[in-house]
Amino acid sequence: MSATDPTDDTLSRLIARHRDCEGPLLPILHDMMEAFGHIDEGTYPQLGRALGITRAEIHGVVSFYHDFKTRPNGHHTIKLCRAEACQSVGATETQSALFDRLGLTDFGTTPDGRITVEAVYCLGLCACGPAALVDTQPRGRVSAQSLATEVGA
Ligand code: FES
After folding, report:
1. Structural domain for 41, as ranges
2. Number of domains into which the chain is organized
3. Which residue, of 13, 84, 102, 140, has the greatest Cβ tally within 10 A?
4. How far apart are CA 27 and CA 14, in angstroms?
């Protein structure tokens, strides 16, 4: 079993861990993200049967929270701040240059599956924008060059 290959056994254990809690769906989804790196839509029927909720209800929750992914991210994830303070110091130009460097036309994952670029809206690093998170590490005064170098692109 790989970390990105949801299995009935693993999912059953995650469901059993939270089934009797009040509001079990969110903790189960968080555990699925940790175990599988994403929430495969193919798991919705099993989740729905276990929790007595519909596929639409599960989809509504998964699609509402940006941190829930229905496909695995790349090996590295760059979360580039797109909020106003960072825009005022070049975040838009940084984004364009980073997309050019990585071969992206929009936020998403590179064709080789190695790097995912996501938009975020304020990381609390406004004084040192443009700001980003590279995997879990905050970075200030980033450039396309510095970000690409950090993820080996
Ligand atoms: S606006 Fe970018 S970190 Fe706050």
Report:
1. 6-64
2. 2
3. 102
4. 9
The per-residue pLDDT for range 71-84, each reduced to its tens digit, is: 888 999 999 999 99
Taking a C-beta distance cutoff of 8 angstroms, is the pair 69, 75 a contact? no
Phi-psi region of 76 (alpha: psi -120 to 50; beta: other; left: phi over 0): beta
User: pLDDT-derived band of residue 67, with 50, 70 and 90 as boundaries?
Assistant: confident
Shortest-distance atom of ligand 1 to CA 129: 2
Cα dist from 98 to 26, 59, 88, 92, 138, whole Å: 33, 31, 17, 10, 17
Q: Is 130 in the pocket of ligand 1 (CB under 6 A)?
A: no
Within-domain flag for 70: no
User: pTM for the full model?
Assistant: 0.75
Asked if residue 82 and residue 53 are part of one domain, the reply reads no
* HSE value, Cβ hemisphere, 13 Å, CA-based, for 92: 4
